[in-house]
Specification:
mainly beta, Porin, 2 helices
C-alpha cells in the first residue's frame, strides 16, 4: 500500500472517530403521548407512540417516530402516523432546544373512515420545535410542538353534504414524552 493511501485511510479513521465522539450519547429511545387537531375531519385524537433517534453529531440527529391514535368505541380515530426526518439544535447543560423536519405517512384506519374517506393513506410533513430536559445523563423529557401538514390531495370525506376535495391541511400537534440516551 502506498504512503498516500495509508494517509487517506488514517485521516478517514480520525474523521469518523471525531464525528462519533461529537455525540455524547449516540442513540435515544422513548415513548410519547401526543394530540392532533384534524380540522376538516373534525377530530382531535390522542395518541401513544415510540421514538428512536440516532445522533449523527452533537447538533444533528435522525428522528424516527411511530404514533397510533387508538379507535374509540364509536369508530372514530384509529389513525397511525410514521415520521422520519432530522432534528437539529443545541444542548445547554440540562436543556436542549431543537427544530424538527420530518416527512412521513398517516393512515386513517378506524371504522369511521372505512366508508367515509376514499383514500386512507396520505403524505404528511411535521415541522416544529422540541424542548428537552435531561434529569440525568441517560434520561430525557421531551416536549414537542409542531405543524403537521397532511396532503390529502383529491381525497374526499363523504360524511358532508358537499364532499369536496380535502386538499392540504395544517394541523397543530403537541406532544410530551420521556426516554433513555445511550
Amino acid at each position: 500500500m502506498t504512503c498516500r493511501k495509508t494517509n487517506v485511510i488514517v485521516v478517514m479513521i480520525i474523521a469518523v472517530s471525531l464525528v462519533r465522539s461529537a455525540a455524547a450519547q449516540t442513540y435515544e429511545v422513548g415513548l410519547q403521548l401526543t394530540g392532533l387537531h384534524l380540522h376538516k375531519i373534525d377530530e382531535a385524537p390522542f395518541g401513544v407512540g415510540a421514538r428512536f433517534n440516532y445522533n449523527v453529531t452533537r447538533f444533528v440527529a435522525a428522528d424516527i417516530e411511530v404514533t397510533h391514535y387508538p379507535e374509540n368505541p364509536s369508530g372514530n380515530f384509529g389513525e397511525t402516523a410514521a415520521l422520519a426526518g432530522i432534528r437539529a439544535g443545541k444542548r445547554f447543560g440540562r436543556i436542549g432546544t431543537f427544530l424538527k423536519v420530518r416527512p412521513g405517512l398517516m393512515h386513517f384506519g378506524g371504522d369511521y373512515f372505512q366508508l367515509r374517506l376514499d383514500v386512507k393513506t396520505h403524505f404528511t410533513m411535521d415541522v416544529g420545535g422540541v424542548l428537552e430536559y435531561y434529569p440525568s445523563p441517560h434520561t430525557f423529557v421531551r416536549v414537542d410542538a409542531g405543524d403537521t401538514t397532511i396532503y390529502f390531495g383529491n381525497a374526499r370525506l363523504f360524511n358532508r353534504p358537499n364532499p369536496d376535495a380535502l386538499g392540504t391541511i395544517h394541523n397543530f400537534q403537541p406532544g410530551m414524552g420521556f426516554g433513555f440516551r445511550f
